Amino acid sequence: MSTGRVVTLTANPSLDRTLSLPGPLREGGVVRLLDAVTEPGGKGVNVARAVAAAGGEAVPVLPAAEHDPIVAALAERGLPPVTVPVDAPVRTNYTLTAPDGTTTKLNEPGIPLTAQTRAALARAVRLHASGSRWVVLSGSLPPGTPADWYAELVALLRDTGVRIAVDTSDDPLRALLAGGRSGAPDLLKPNSEELASLAGVPEAELLGDPAVALAAVRVLHEQGVSEVLLTLGGDGAVLSTADGGLWSARPPEITVRSTVGAGDCSLAGYLLADLAGAPPAERLRTAVAYGSASASLPGSAVPTPAQVDGSAVRVLAGMPGSEATSTSAVPPAGPNTDPAAGRVAR
Question: What pLDDT digit, counting tens, does each position of 16-71 carry?
Fold first, then answer.
């Protein structure tokens, strides 16, 4: 059983409405849906749900009115959130999933947060960070929120002793790393598009040349990030640590049902393995296993440990495609070790 608490901040939460299409979407027609499911969402909320589903302790912090449907939905799942009240209802995001696994997302704009609301959220996160193992700052920022707010929060939390993970993109990601070491998190989880943007190179170049990807990751370490979990969708993930550790993981072949929340579940898997005291290679294995399990489920469902198979994940020393990875397989630490976004079975 994992020990320690995970606090997540979701500044831009959502109700995630997944609509299952009977076939490819055709504009202008009438579609009779196969199914429709609503889950509490937002990247930090998804991380908290996955941690809780594994028996871990998670505290989701978010802006929401007392009687907002997302509050009741989380409470029903055994995750009563810590909320800061806002006047508007939480947004709804729509995901259209086709039978072949194609996913189309329609995201509503979030609720603008006042300076007072942001300050209250920061106080709530800091309060619950005391005695916790991890704080996760995850997702986009609502309209009007300063891009450097995550960097400010990292600096605010630094003296609590909690470890800080950040998963964001665009201006908030760039601002996080522009603030110097005071804003650098312990763990950063970019995908290939986000890392390429930070490095100022085309994504295709980063994916096609391990040396380019490794150079981009090393820049993050030079800026103060201790661990980088680079997710590569169906190609697995890479873990790099500031002390020179480097591993890559290949997922099992799966039939993708929905990619919504797969990256969040990857992060949750990594944190769960860390809480259990696993070494870096096993943390990566569990991250990839959790993302794969998530992608094989419908909508934004999060996997339980019974749905996660770490033994199907191949972990190698070095970058994918490098000479080291062809010879340095890392076996699982034991059976049922634990699953991230997997390759589509075509």
Answer: 999 999 998 888 989 999 999 999 999 999 999 999 999 999 999 999 999 999 99
pLDDT at 328 over 80: no
Exposed e or buried b per residue across 231-259, where buried means at least 16 C-beta atoms within 10 angstroms of its C-beta = bbbbbbbbbbbeeeebbbbbbbebebbbb
For the chain, give the secondary structure using H, E and C: CCCCEEEEECCCCEEEEEEECCCCCCCCCCCCCCEEEEEEECHHHHHHHHHHHCCCEEEEEEECCCCCHHHHHHHHCCCCCEEECCCCCCEEEEEEECCCCCEEEEECCCCCCCHHHHHHHHHHHHHHHCCCCEEEEECCCCCCCCCCHHHHHHHHHHHHCCEEEEECCHHHHHHHHHCCHHHCCCEECCEHHHHHHHHCCCHHHHHHCHHHHHHHHHHHHHCCCCEEEEECHHHCEEEEECCCCEEEEECCEECCCCCCCHHHHHHHHHHHHHHCCCCHHHHHHHHHHHHHHHHCCCCCCCCCHHHCCHHHCEEEECCCCCCHHHCCEECCCCCCCCCCCCEECC
Spell out the domain ranges in the chain: 5-12+43-89+114-344
Sign of CA dihedral 254, 259, 263, 265: negative
**pTM score over 0.85:** yes
> What gap in Å lies between CA 336 and CA 223, rounded to an integer?
36
Bridging pattern class, strands 91-97 and 14-20: parallel
Domain spanning 5-12+43-89+114-344, CATH architecture: 3-Layer(aba) Sandwich (3.40)
